[in-house]
Amino acid sequence: MTQTHTSKVGFVSLGCPKALVDSERILTKLRSEGYEIAAEYKGSDVVIVNTCGFIDSAKEESFNAIKEAMNENGKVIVTGCLGVDEGAVREVTPGVLAVTGPQQYEQVVNEVHKAAPQPHDPFTHLVPEAGLKLTPRHYSYVKISEGCNHRCKFCIIPSLRGDLVSRPIRAVLREAEKLVEAGTQELLIISQDTSAYGLDLKHGLEKWKDREIRAHMTDLANALGDMDVWVRLHYVYPYPHVDDVIPLMAEGKILPYLDIPFQHASPKVLKAMKRPANDAKVLERLKKWRSICPEIVIRSTFIVGFPGETEEDFEYLLNWLQEAQLDRVGCFKYEAVDGAAANALPDPVPEDVKQDRWERFMAVSQEISAAKLQQRIGMEMAVLIDEVTDEGAIGRTYADAPEIDGKVFLEGAIDYVPGDMVMAHIDDASAYDLYGHVVIDDDQDEEGWDW
Ligand code: SF4
Question: From the CB of 144, is ligand 1 less than 6 Å away?
Fold first, then answer.
């Protein structure tokens, strides 16, 4: 029998969950064509580096990854956000085989065909129906649209990824269904602007199972809620129709968790940022949402030190945060991004002031988080296990998204595997994490539970 060479492709995936989904699509296509995905540079016929070019530190990490792949292997294809500026990539790392931008799956695959021969018999049997995933099997990101119709001044995503293009709702639901069939326990819905989903499709109707549903966030959440797994919504702007998903959370159809990137609270700064939905009466709405669904957890991110932000604006933000009592909060010091409109704004905030505001902001948010987590002590909560070590299991409750929020440490819970769902008694809490022990696992619970 003749031994044939199977082309091997090395892969480095950097950046946000949206870039991760791009990587999964490229890998799925290559695997379906019979390529092997290699864990090391050495021995790979070609290496793909999926880059992030959003802020300077991400660019630097991407350039370092390209240089490392060039040194170790020498045959490198660059894709992703950094690829939008091909000239800069070629200037810093001359000799790369090709440079393509985000979502250019076909071009990447074509470049791989040129660099490494396509295997002769591309049997598709090695590809699971749900595609290849870079996240653990028990949770999956589902990207529902690309691009964004807004023009926030600090952001270059619309120039990198274009205006909003929503995926047909049937395609999203079919993908979600395949992921659930393959063992996913948690679907994380991502996009640049989840509440705008379907706007470009004029929220048109499509047939799904025995009914017709609109390409609309509410219908999507409802249909995903029928799949009997955790459904978590990310990047939701507080447009009025967001009110309609809160009852779905109260009913237990989707997780009572909303990731709303507010970025600021001062009307003046929000206006200068050109943020969408900035005129919504957010505090009142939070109150209303909590009255409908008391378990709801709100996660958000903020930027301090945006050009023109005064001490008064910042104090407005701190007071707002105290009042809003958000559960999970991230904060960034404003950083100029090449090509962003905000670079032309007057009154930059000095670095030491940004640092001081960041520290003050984090102190308030940490205090809120610690107080909220203290209230969890004594509760029994469903925990989805992400990791098992010699000392116990590490998982998350509904209140925590993977990689960005807190964790639950279950000491001594070593007889589990990632993806198991257990009921845990919460014994203790720190500012961001919970500590507890398993009281019941899903094999013992015939009825099942939500959270
Ligand atoms: S909503 Fe604003 S920050 Fe978000 S992707 Fe669109 S332009 Fe960027």
Answer: no
Q: Is 16 annotated as a binding residue?
A: yes
CATH topology of domain 380-441: OB fold (Dihydrolipoamide Acetyltransferase, E2P) (2.40.50)
pLDDT value at 126 more than 80: no
Judge if the beta carbon of residue 273 lies within 6 A of ligand 1. no
Question: Which among 66, 69, 71 is positioned nearest to 82, based on CA atoms?
Answer: 66
**Cβ atoms within 10 A of the Cβ of 163, count?**
12
pLDDT digits 0-9 by tens, 232-257: 999 999 999 999 999 999 999 999 99
Give the CB-side neighbour count of residue 69, counting CA atoms within 13 A: 31
**Domain 139-374 in this protein, CATH class:** alpha beta
Lowest-pLDDT range of 52-56, 122-126, 285-289, 334-338: 122-126
Quick check: CB of 150 below 6 Å from ligand 1? yes
Output the six-digit token pair for 47.
Answer: 């290496």
Q: Is the CB of 44 under 6 A from ligand 1?
A: no
Give the DSSP letter string of 259-325: E---B---HHHHHHHT-TTTTS-HHHHHHHHHHH-TT-EEEEEEEES-TT--HHHHHHHHHHHHHHT
Q: Is 9 in the pocket of ligand 1 (CB under 6 A)?
A: no
> Distance between CA atoms of 383 and 329, rounded to whole angstroms?
21
Nearest CA to ligand 1 atom 1: 150
Going by alpha carbons, the residue nearest to atom 2 of ligand 1 is 152
260 in contact with ligand 1, CB cutoff 6 A: no
Ligand 1 atom index nearest CA of 263: 3
Tokens (6 digits) for 61 = 């990490």
Sorted by where each begins, the domain ranges of the chain are: 8-126, 139-374, 380-441
143-to-164, 222, 347 alpha-carbon distances in Å: 12, 17, 37
Residue whose token pair is 């699509």: 25
d(CA 333, CA 353): 10
Residue 441, Cα to own-chain centre: how many angstroms?
28
Closest listed residue to residue 330, CA positions, set 256, 275, 430, 404:
404
CA end-to-end distance (rounded Å), the chain: 56
Choices 1.10.260.40, 3.30.565.10, 3.40.50.12160, 2.120.10.30: CATH for 8-126:
3.40.50.12160
Q: From the CA of 321, how far away is ligand 1's center (Å)?
A: 22
